Amino acid sequence: MSLSQEELSRYSRHLILPEVGKSGQETLKASSVLVVGAGGLGCPLLTYLAAAGVGTLGIIDFDVVDESNLQRQVLYTTLDIGKPKVDIAKQKLLALNPYIQVNTYQEPLTSDNALDLFSKYDVIADGTDNFATRYLVNDACVLSGKPNVYGSIFRFEGQVTVFNYQNGPNYRCLYQEPPPPGLVPSCAEGGVLGVLPGVVATLQSNEVIKVLLNIGNVASGRLILFDALQLSFREVGIKKRNDYKITELIDYNQFCGVTMDQENSNVNDITVYDLKEKLDNQEEFQLIDVREPHEYDICAIEPSTLIPLGELEEKLDSLDKSKSFVIHCKSGGRSARAVMLMQEKGFGDVVNLAGGILSWADHIDNSLNKY
Q1: CA-wise closest residue to 22 among 48, 45, 4, 44
Q2: Gap between the Cα atoms of 30 and 7, Å rounded
Q3: Does 125 share its domain with 215?
Q4: Are residues 177 and 267 in the same domain?
Q5: Model confidence over 299-327: pLDDT tens digits?
Q6: Which of 21, 47, 54, 344 is the most exposed place for a label (fewest CB within 10 A)?
Q7: Which has the closest alpha carbon to 85: 72, 76, 98, 74?
């Protein structure tokens, strides 16, 4: 695919690199990359791939821009709040580079659409933040034979590697099965340093370009770990395993928000409307918040008692088992685990607030700060 005079000028710093050159830039123009997720990782990923001249970019994300995104999702501005991420991303990317094509898919990635979608692209870049989609991306890449340029972030740490590259290891070679639902907090629960996704996604972009151009030492079989607080990198080897086989796609339960499989647990949920009715009717119950103190400082439901999940077990003796309890956290995952713990310890009337304080802020008290 030949380059126009304008493109020759635009990509001149690539063209003078012997490892890229004119033929390499034409390869980039003829290439296609699907970025799964237009969030913290997806924004810088898309920006650098668009600037580099990757000819066709696909974006799949069903979310809209939220104010809490703006601390790290650098494609969006305050004026974009409430608008679909894929639409804003496409607009910004084409403004950056009008010589590329941007395809958008405002829908969740599922077992029904993954294989068909992946078949249209040369490389898949994983910018997701939950285990359910992470395993789905991995398995669909294996079944469709696509390289999976992987990145993940949490608090101050990030990971980068390339899975399923030239018959190399995939994500299940590292973690064969997902963790129990709700065991690992998401970035929404644990937080993330705003600049961290920029570092990790830039490394992902680097690997995408190397894969497309078949240059350098691609990070296949090597998990690169970055610690932002220490400004340090280290590397862990990943060996290919042959003790399992991926034969179909699985839609795992969500691993952020309410993560409990209600058919297989004894956790009962109530809605935020149920909780408001209880408060309005001045019913006798105790509302317990199992988030961390720094989260409680941002917003709280009154009247609630703060007992962080990690301290709950040792403080159960101070609670009256004959009382009724409503447990909440940010979005429902930690509180569901708290309910299970309390039930195991003999508490009979204890329920989980579905959607947590985020749902309360959305539907009951819009004055609360969200994070």
Answers
A1: 4
A2: 13
A3: yes
A4: no
A5: 999 999 999 999 999 999 999 999 999 99
A6: 344
A7: 76
Whole-prediction pTM value?
A: 0.77
DSSP type of residue 182: T
Give the residue among 89, 159, 94 at the shortest CA–CA distance from 128: 159
Residue 232: both structure tokens together: 């340090």
Residues with a known catalytic role = 187, 329
On average, the pLDDT of the chain sits at 92
Closest-CA residue to 50 (of 95, 88, 106):
95
> Which one-letter amino acid corresponds to residue 348?
G
β pairing state of 32-36 and 56-60: parallel
CA–CA gap between residue 179 and residue 175 (Å, rounded)? 9
Query: Omega into 108 within 30° of 0, i.e. cis?
Result: no
Whether residue 286 sits in one domain with residue 207: no
The pLDDT of residue 256: 37
Q: Pick from 253, 251, 277: which is nearest to 333 by CA?
A: 253
